[in-house]
Fold:
Amino acid sequence: MFFHKHPYKPFIQKDTKKLIVGTLPPPRFSTGELLEKDVDFCYGSYYNSLWLFIDKIHNLNLRYDNSQQAIEERKQFLINHKIGVCDIVESAEREKIDASDLGMQNIKLRNIIGYLKVYPSIETILFTGGNSKNGPEYFFRRHIRDYGLKLELVNNEVPRIHQFTLCESELVSESEKAKIDEPKRIIKTVSLTSGSGAANISISRLPLYKQLKAKNPNFNTFDFRVMQYSEYF
Structure:
């Protein structure tokens, strides 16, 4: 059984407004066996594509290698745009050493609600995937049930948008809740289409994608994600 521990601590600043929440990077990031174009940082897998989308949106001309400069480029972008990263899975076990979310067992989650309380400027959570089993939104729904919270649907079109209300009393016992008088804080969640190749099939079935593809035969799933992500990055 392979013990898959997240190799990176959450990357959050005091003024962070948006928080990217995924699951785990591929196992090679935990074992240090990076590929030539991998970057040793959050979403550093060249084949994950998140940074490729961001690069395309902002014309950043990022480096894709194992250098420290490549890391710093990504950190600086996140800081400048007040975006943080806090994947929800701290560790998991795998029988097969791969990056499949479904292959995770004995999963330990990070306390995302706790981080939201420590960083009150966070307004939006960007899930790098939907509510499929063992996806980031799936785990987050399970996580917030421990606090008596649930996601309320705002928009059912892809990317689906939800919200939930957070206040200080969610983190204390029932007997203490009455003593706390804090304005309610609404957090929005956006379930972006996953950057994985497996999501290409679901994208191809979307009416909007079919419409755009009909107008421009060269339009592809990469273009679709760039269009979607540009609103949030």
